[in-house]
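U., I forgot to send this yesterday:
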Amino acid sequence: MAGISIFFITTYFSDYILVPLKSRSAVIRTLEARGFVFEKSAEAYVNVAAHHRNASSTSSFEVLPPTTPPPTTVSELQARTFALLRRRAIVPHVHRDIRLVQCAGRRDSLGGEHSPSSAPDLQLQIGLTRCIVHPPRFFSVTLTEAEPPSLLLERRSLRLFGGPDVLLGSKHDVLIPITLNLEPLPFEATGIVCGVAGKLVGGRADGGAGRVLRPVEMSYLSTARAGTVMVDEEDLERAVELLNAGEFGLDVE
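Result:
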């Protein structure tokens, strides 16, 4: 609730938060106020109170532009966000036929004493090229200097990378994407991550017939035109019910 616009990217190794350069000082103050410290060895901010990374980290919460007094609670923030989505007729769309897996290149093939033309690297490069030449319905790759490539791709595209040892990650843990088309919103509009993530990771105590809806772990990918939530295939129906629940629930398609 610091009034800072962000892009959020979940990868195999890390969570990345992209912020406007003009907001750098405000971001640092906000992180430090919430218990994060910068570790030079990791070149990243680390929450000293939580040593284990969680894909549904609440650090992904965004806020609405400060055109009105900022919300004072996460619940108020969620209500504002979902009200905005409803006004702009933005409806989450579940792509049930797109089955994703999150993978990464192997660390032992990244730099160091290994040649850039080593077998794992070459196979990875060939696989990435094949994905571009034969574009799937969903494909995301994150490249950074410090980590091997992180991939989010359709499970059926794994065959393009050759043998099973080219990529790290479970090939059986399937994620289903839920996409929100954000084109009707101004580029600087925020609050989408908080609204969606807050409902999913917070759960709800008044599911239909008095049922308790357990929280859903999720990953998130921000792009220029959309926000995509990814949930485990087994949690999909519960995620849809959570998004539908409440006064400002959305009619998920």
